[in-house]
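Kindly draft a polypeptide, keeping tokens residue-aligned:

***
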Amino acid sequence: MWLDGIQHFPPAYNSATYLKHASNFIYRRFTDEATSSTMKPALSAEKINHATFLSQLRFYEDLVPKSLEGLEEVRLREIPGTLAQRRKHGNAFLEKTEVTALVEWKLYVS
């Protein structure tokens, strides 16, 4: 499951930051789907609390477009795992290709 990579996030990428980004992604997907079919959004930013976020999080994988799955794998599993290994050797850094993948993901979801 994609959540497996969460335990490998670097300290600077804390759970509050992760929850903020993931909830924004979920909110946009539900809002886009709802407004495109002339329905009211299923969720609003004011109504998303921690419990609502966790209940909706299980739908995240279903909402990720096929074209984004590779970048999600890199962002949630590969880069955190690589950083954890580098940190063990005393030097945590991102290579240009890793930064590029994160920027591509950010541009896609923004």
Remarks:
- The longest helix spans residues 15-36.
- The chain has one domain: 2-109.
